[in-house]
Amino acid sequence: MVVTKADNMTDMYASLRSNVSMLGQILGDTMRTHLGDSFLEKVEQIRKLAKDSRRGDQAAREQMLELLTALPDEELVPFAKAFNQFLNLANLSEQFHTISRNCDELVCVPDPVEQLLGRMLNGRVDQTKMLDCLKTLDIDLVLTAHPTEISRRTLIQKYAAIVDCLTEQENDQLSDRERQQINLRLRQLIAQIWHTNEIRRERPTPVDEARWGLSTIEESLWHAVPDFLRQLNDRVQQRTGQQLPIDIAPVRFSSWMGGDRDGNPFVTAKVTQEVLDRNRHAAARLFLKDIVLLVGELSMEEANDELKAYTNNSCEPYRHVLRSIRQRLRDTIDYLNARIEGHNPEVDKSSLIWQESDLKAPLEMLYKSLTDCGMRLIANGLLLDILRRLACFGIHMLRLDIRQDASRHSDVLAELTRYLGMGDFNHWDETEKQAFLLRELSNRRPLIPGNWQPSADVAEVLNTCRLIAKHPAKALGSYVISMAGKPSDVLTVLLLLKETGCSHPMRVVPLFETLSDLNNAAACITDLLDIDWYRGYTKGMQEVMIGYSDSAKDAGVMAAAWAQYHAQEQLVAVCKQAGVKLTLFHGRGGSIGRGGGPAHKAILSQPPGSVDGRIRVTEQGEMIRFKFGLPKLAVQSLALYTSAVLEATLLPPPEPKQEWRNCMQRIAEESVGAYRGIVRDEPDFVAYFRAATPEVELGKLPLGSRPAKRRVDGGIESLRAIPWIFAWSQNRLMLPAWLGAGEALQAASERGEMGLLQDMEREWPFFSTRISMLEMVYAKAEPNLARYYETCLVPKELHHLGETLRQRLDLGIKVVLELTKSDSLMAHTPWNRESVKLRNPYIDPLNFLQTELLARTRKETTETPASEHVQLALMLTIAGVAAGMRNTG
Prior knowledge:
Blueprint: H1 5-35, H2 37-54, H3 58-69, H4 73-97, H5 112-124, H6 127-136, E1 138-144, H7 153-169, H8 176-194, H9 206-240, E2 251-255, H10 269-297, H11 305-310, H12 317-340, H13 356-372, H14 376-379, H15 382-393, E3 399-405, H16 406-419, H17 430-441, H18 456-470, E4 476-482, H19 487-499, E5 507-512, H20 515-529, H21 532-538, E6 541-547, H22 549-555, H23 557-578, E7 581-587, H24 599-604, E8 614-620, H25 621-628, H26 631-650, H27 658-679, H28 685-692, H29 695-698, H30 721-730, H31 741-750, H32 754-763, H33 765-780, H34 783-793, H35 799-820, H36 830-858, H37 868-885
Parallel strand pairs: 1-2, 1-8, 2-3, 3-4, 4-5, 5-6, 6-7, 7-8
């Protein structure tokens, strides 16, 4: 029998469906035990009706709706829980499938590093140049908590244990008894999940979020980083015959958890101090585990002269050094425990691991001794893994970024200048501000009087700056200024850091996040780099953050994407002219509407010259789990980032043709007009949005530590980008991810530019990535479900707007299919299409139930509030739809 590609693909889907079916069966058995046969039969009946409804069976749809609306209160929570957990188990099966040993190239990601090295070293890139670039790569992945992962940490740990069981099941040599044991463990885990409350009872604190970020490192990345570097070294050695340096760290990690105070009143200097201590504590604890194991391994006696002299000719010189490190780590942990508990113990810093060199120098001495004595095989085991973990994570685990709104800094100076009788800083023009700031930056006398009693908000900003001054530079990343737009925004922060005693030159990074800010970014950086004092401060390095969330919310995805691209091009040119190395920091989210999508494609679609071996990227919320939650997945993600940055640096995409630029500029202008014509200019839009989505109810879901709005009394303009996206993904219209794009593409087609668009899609990575992302969100959008929300929840006088939006969606789908010359969306990515298809019959019932529950809660009065069952079930439907759509925002 001849096996075709289609047959193989079917087999791969069959393997995935087999795991989904098995886990679903165990979940069903758990529900039967807990709730009885009749409940399980009802769940299964609704699932089948949802599937038939998807095929266009109107009678099945009506029957499903009757069953859902008739659910008694006591069945609401278990029903929502059943579909929610099935979707989580489906996600888990799909995650596992991509790392399964039974996976093949039709589904799984080929080794991106191996593929790239093959292309590069086939005469396209000089080997020495490639190795030099690889050794100096600087990829910084910044973990953020907005929104924080919707799943509780305790459930995430149980999901990881299920993956371990699925991995064990792939062993063909298992005995029947061993298989029974694995099956028993799976049943135990799924029962534990079923009986665990999925919704947090309280909002996580910023410290909780930081601890969640640390757990991702401890459970996955701590193992994945040395595994990835070992694989990378093997690939490079096979291709070039050379080994990578022992301290290579192409990818490092930073965090905003506990440092991002923009609009979050709960992130204070005290909180940031605790998070910094916890980060160090986690690092010391993990290094201690490794050192304890290494003491057991390095029992050899032979050593080089340096080590012999250092240990006074000890009979076990390696253990002699390691035992000293072990004790210093234990003392460090005790010291940090006391600090976390609120004490400030006096301690001799020389007895602790206080600087990175305290750990690095003795370990490198051991490595050198082993290699000098012919024991390289031993040196390249656990010892090398520890050295590479140290290179990646340091002794602080995560470099903590600080983020604050520009207005909070200027308010400090305004209050201070008023106190000093100098006028109001906020009322000065930009020229006056810069003159004052530069004069004070060069002045040796203190500006802040010792007897000044600032307001609480001002004191908090100053306390944060004093905290920065107390900590070593390696504990901290960048100071990000949100809503930055002028050079004075940067100089203000630098003055505050100087006045609070910060002696190390912290990177101060303007974040350009609205359409106008992006358009003005290059002018702002030009003005900054024209200042001699500032040029001296930067030491030839400039970091700039590009905002994706707020720019898309401001202008729509198509116009925002072009503004981001154009701003990067201009920033590259400005920094090149000034002789300054630029690092671009991409503030991406998980959803398409916030700049999300496959990281590999996103990096390769950046303007030529904008990567240049350096990049910072945010990884947020649930995407951290999807990319880094399992060690094997994390190795894949690290390889994808490394290969993409290496390729973008050494094999950059071509400069776009002028006719492409002109076309894209027209598309951007038309798309922002279409987008704002609805979001800003349509008088019924806000009322429709709040009625047709669970936006108001989302504020009650204890997702993240910070409020959903920047201002409590603000309207839609003050709503954060995350709940904005989250709300529209719940009713399945996905509006922020496509509104304006289809209208602009259709206008281009009507101008006779379809052939040009097809050339751009085929030859320009930036444009092809945009179209690919549009295809994905169009495939996820469900206009019929959105119409159902409208029918049940929206006043009839607003229905006209829903009809307009669905017509716009249909227009966009048609023009994208015409552009790609396809009969169906995602025809070229069948695995992604199958992934969406697999979930729909399980998400749909949650959507239908959600509308029923929203209707009930919105009818509640003070005298007759919605029951606890209704409120909890509503939260579960929100969590379940988010799990099915695989993003919260």
